């Protein structure tokens, strides 16, 4: 799935990865770029990796452990909240860019699901967990 962070995170072998488009959000894995409403998002390498991993599994719940393993290339330690912190940062940036959308949904005890939804636009990043 995602290449190691120290290398080029956006390339896997020589195969180009498809651009993911969801509403006004476009994720370009090979360029390391996410565009929201026509403007590039300023994401860290980890935030971009997390967004790409979630979007690649659109509609499915992804366990925190699996996200950590894919993005950080390590095993999640008991009590480690790194994934939660980065999901929060990512939510804030997505909400600032596209306030009418909610992209990441929490399933307590299970993980996170990437499912773009306009109907929950009344939530804010601080309440949409």
TrEMBL record:
UniProt entry tagged with the keyword DNA-binding: yes
UniProt GO molecular function: DNA binding
Example GO BP: phosphorelay signal transduction system
Entry-linked InterPro entries: OmpR/PhoB-type_DNA-bd (IPR001867), Sig_transdc_resp-reg_C-effctor (IPR016032), WH-like_DNA-bd_sf (IPR036388)
Keyword terms, alphabetized: DNA-binding
SMART domains to which the protein is assigned, alphabetical: Trans_reg_C
Organism of origin: freshwater metagenome
UniProt domain OmpR/PhoB-type: residue ranges: 17-116
Protein name, per record: Unannotated protein
Taxon lineage: unclassified sequences, metagenomes, ecological metagenomes
Residue ranges that the Swiss-Prot or TrEMBL entry lists as coiled coil: none
